[in-house]
Design a protein that fits this description.
This protein is about 55% helix and about 15% strand. It is of the alpha+beta class. Helix 3 (about 20-35) runs antiparallel to helix 4 (about 40-60) and helix 5 (about 85-100) crosses helix 7 (about 125-145).
């Protein structure tokens, strides 16, 4: 009898694709599983199709952002108010600066921590955890399909355009 992980990979993959960006999922799976060569050809094809669909979805995306980071408007969603979230404002602005200066290049964990908590002195693990929580909050508030990350840091998808308002 096959293990559950081998028996039903496409069901688990479909569930992951519903929750996460296809490109992010492919990046994670590519790094974690490529060395083990444990992906079957149908799953690899399914991932490639999902990445193309995800790219098509994000390439037409335009997000309106206040120049001071007080709010952003994800496509098809209501305005997200960040006035009471100075850490999320700082994080969004740091990601936008990095996106403007070097699209698709990761903004390092250290740079984002410095932008969000400039005067806080905590253990690196604590600051890393705070950053992961803040990233997760931005994703939940509407940036799930455009906020990318890997071991090098985080970045905003290069296929997304940002309209900065309130200069």
């Amino acid at each position: 009898m096959q293990s559950e992980g081998i028996m039903r990979p496409s069901v688990r993959l479909s569930a992951l694709l519903e929750r996460e960006s296809a490109r992010t999922l492919f990046e994670v799976l590519g790094r974690e599983l490529a060395m083990r060569a444990s992906l079957s050809e149908p799953i690899v094809l399914q991932l490639r199709v999902a990445v193309r669909l995800d790219s098509a979805r994000t390439s037409a995306t335009r997000i309106v952002v206040d120049s001071a980071g007080r709010f952003f408007e994800p496509p098809g969603s209501a305005r997200v108010d960040l006035r009471r979230s100075p850490v999320l404002r700082s994080l969004l602005l740091a990601l936008l600066r990095a996106h403007r200066d070097q699209p698709s290049r990761a903004c390092s964990r250290e740079a984002l921590v410095a932008a969000c908590w400039p005067d806080v002195r905590l253990a690196p693990a604590s600051l890393g955890n705070r950053l992961r929580v803040a990233i997760a909050m931005l994703r939940r508030r509407g940036l799930r399909h455009v906020l990318r990350g890997d071991a090098d840091g985080w970045w905003l998808d290069a296929g997304v355009s940002f309209e900065i308002v309130g200069h």
